[in-house]
Design goal:
globular; 2 domains; 8-stranded mixed β-sheet; 17% strand; two-stranded antiparallel ribbon; alpha/beta
């Protein structure tokens, strides 16, 4: 049996992923069957080399490469078939860059589809879908509602937002028998099974970017244990499932503590990530390698290490911060300018009228203005007589669809819809 762990370590860089502000995720243990395999299908597809994808959130190329080459991550190095400074089977990519914005869901959607945000449609951790007049928040920041986070794992919230085929769907189109497992990653469409942690986990690690949380860390009232618990259970659950049964042809393992802990660690991003990689993740990678090696699961298996973005240290104060404050920042500025701003929440009543939407974009702040003056909508009764008229802001098209005027066809296209749903 031949060991061939060819690693393609891909950088998806730049600064910031917008974490879940004051959201708590309770993950029910177990797994979800995403696809029923045909009864006459083989258990897996050994015709092609197998693949292990380590998806590490919030780690940039320069930091990871430096640690690998400096011998700080012997567990990961062994998984890649190398040692410090000697990776004869590895390719260290130097060209791949992150999406703009380099936020978690936009970048991971690109990594898992190969398409840019303009194609797959997930343009940030929060964004506004004009054509549906709907606010999407795969990673809520501007409001406290964990619903989208939970539904990512229970009801395919993120999968349903992506408008491009995933890498798993491309693989299955070429090889219908491929067996794909995804462990805790937000994107799993096309896989056979989504692996979750084995016991309920209260992840208040998703409370990054909350000033209160940072102060508690600085005062020593909290530690990184919440983040460690999530990543440890993810890896150990995978290890347990590798004990028997068919090995997956494709296994994606997602760890998030490198990002979540970094957002709240007082020592700064580089020191926090180095310590977390060295002290938490590297021993877990040893466990994963041993579990795969025991079953011959590393023979002729490619190993890909990738990330969504990096981190850039910035001043920690309100003067230089760009946050999601319902009474300040962009929201206050828009209101001062006379705009009716959509409330910072996931869902608003169907008849709510607003002229601007703010979707927090991490290093970028997204402001969605309506395309023009409000349109007067008239509803009629069954007899054709006018019952009432209402004024509603037109959201049918983005502003870039015209360079001249907001009247004429655009207004008629909005007026043609007498209700919004």
């Amino acid at each position: 049996m031949r060991l061939r762990p060819l690693v393609c370590i891909a950088l998806l860089l730049l600064a910031d992923c917008g974490a879940y502000h004051a959201a708590r995720l309770v993950v029910a243990g177990g797994s979800r069957t995403l696809r029923e395999r045909p009864k006459d299908a083989p258990a897996s597809s050994p015709a092609r080399p197998a693949l292990l994808v380590l998806a590490i959130d919030g780690v940039d190329r320069s930091l990871l490469y430096d640690m690998l080459r400096g011998g700080e991550l012997p567990g990961l190095a062994a998984l890649l078939g190398g040692t410090a400074g000697n990776f004869s089977h590895a390719y260290f990519d130097q060209d791949l860059v992150a999406t703009l914005p380099s936020s978690t869901l936009a970048a991971w959607s690109t990594a898992m589809t190969g398409a840019p945000p303009a194609v797959h449609g997930v343009t940030g951790n929060e964004f506004f879908i004009r054509s549906e007049r709907r606010f999407a928040a795969p990673a809520p920041v501007s409001f406290d509602d964990a619903t989208p986070v939970l539904e990512t794992y229970t009801d395919d919230y993120v999968n349903n937002l992506i408008g491009a085929p995933t890498v798993y769907e491309h693989m299955r189109a070429r090889d219908p028998d491929v067996l794909i497992w995804v462990a805790m990653h937000q994107i799993s469409r096309g896989a056979d099974r989504l692996l979750l942690t084995r016991r309920k986990v209260l992840v208040d690690a998703f409370q990054a970017y909350a000033e209160k949380e940072t102060e508690e860390f600085a005062e020593g009232k909290r530690s990184r244990k919440d983040f460690e618990a999530l990543d440890t259970e993810v890896i150990h659950d995978v290890v347990a499932r590798l004990d028997d049964g068919p090995l997956p042809d494709v296994l994606t393992v997602y760890v998030s503590g490198t990002d979540l802990f970094t957002h709240v660690a007082p020592e700064g991003p580089d020191a926090a990530r180095r310590a977390y990689l060295r002290e938490v993740l590297d021993p877990l990678f040893v466990d994963l390698r041993e579990a795969l090696a025991k079953r011959g699961g590393l023979d002729d298996r490619y190993v890909v290490v990738t990330a969504d973005h990096g981190h850039t240290q910035v001043l920690h104060d309100t003067v230089h911060a760009l946050g999601a404050d319902p009474n300040g920042g962009a929201v206050a500025l828009l209101r001062l300018a006379g705009f009716r701003v959509r409330p910072l929440m996931l869902d608003v009543p169907a008849d709510a009228d607003f002229q601007a939407v703010v979707a927090y974009g991490g290093a970028l702040a997204y402001v969605y203005p309506a395309i023009g003056p409000a349109v007067r909508l008239r509803a009629t009764s069954a007899t054709g007589r006018s019952r009432h008229a209402s004024t509603r802001t037109c959201w049918r098209s983005p502003m870039r669809s015209t360079r001249t005027t907001f009247t004429g066809p655009m207004r008629r296209s909005c007026a043609a819809r007498s209700t919004w749903s």
